[in-house]
Amino acid sequence: MRKIELTKRQEHILQIVQDNGPITGEHIAEQLNLTRATLRPDLAILTMAGYLDARPRVGYFYTGKSGTQLLTENLKNFLVKDYQSIPVVVNENVSVYDAICTMFLEDVGTLFVVDQNTLLVGVLSRKDLLRASIGKQELTSIPVNIIMTRMPNITMCEKEDLLIDIAQKLIDKQIDALPVVRKTDKGFEVIGRVTKTNIAKAFVALGNE
Ligand code: ADP
Fold first, then answer.
1. Is 154 in the pocket of ligand 1 (CB under 6 A)?
2. Using CA positions, which residue lies closest to atom 14 of ligand 1?
3. Average pLDDT of the chain?
4. What is the CA(128)–ligand 1 centre distance, in A?
5. Is the model's pLDDT at 181 over the cut of 80?
6. pLDDT tens digit string along 18-72?
7. Which residues does UniProt assign to the signal peptide (predicted)?
8. Which residue pairs from 167-174 have beta carbons closer than 8 angstroms and sit at least 24 positions apart in sequence?
């Protein structure tokens, strides 16, 4: 289901079905003085977009859904797993200096910190690293686990979560990203990353569909 710009003819078909539905393709074609074959692409578009529903031997009927309703329904089908990015992780013992280098080299704004078992233990944002850099400390000798936001205070998500719920979490917690995790007996494995950019991409995809 998607929001689309309807042509004059498609608007006309919608009106006919709204007034007369259920109505067969044959009868819609008659009312428009067109052949059934000419109408077929329009009917297919309107059905795929969710404006019309078709039942065999009954005909077409109007679903009563507005473009906005269809758009909202579509948005609620977006899952984390379809929009997530690859996570960038560092070990909890690496220095703040190395974490800064990783952030630049990998071109990300958030790093996830893992322990020796590659389980999630923390998050590092740009400002966490900037804050640590303001002081006079030697950045090569401070491990990131001193300055990171640590478990259990990490906001996480799973790959089957709805993207819209995750967008809400980013807003509520005022953060830029969160890790996509898989729960194991020992803790959480980091399998992905959802950022404000992923949400923006989903938003654009929705608009372009
Ligand atoms: P920045 O600090 O660069 O503005 P964020 O807004 O993402 O970036 O981070 C704000 C604070 O929240 C930082 O201290 C960071 O460690 C923490 N943080 C970031 N992401 C998460 C998360 N998913 N869960 C918990 N804390 C987080």
1. yes
2. 128
3. 92
4. 8
5. yes
6. 999 899 999 999 999 999 999 999 999 999 888 898 988 889 988 877 777 777 7
7. none
8. 167/199, 170/194, 170/196, 170/199
Q: Which domains does the chain have, with CATH numbers?
A: 8-73 (1.10.10.10), 80-208 (3.10.580.10)
Q: Residue whose CA is closest, atom 26 of ligand 1?
A: 154
Peptide bond into 87 cis (omega under 30): no
Report the nearest-CA residue for atom 2 of ligand 1: 127
Q: Tokens representing 107?
A: 């071109």
Q: Which residues of 120-145 are buried (b: 16+ CB within 10 A; e: fewer)?
A: bbbbbbeebbeebeeeeeeeeebbbb
Q: What is the pLDDT of residue 1?
A: 43
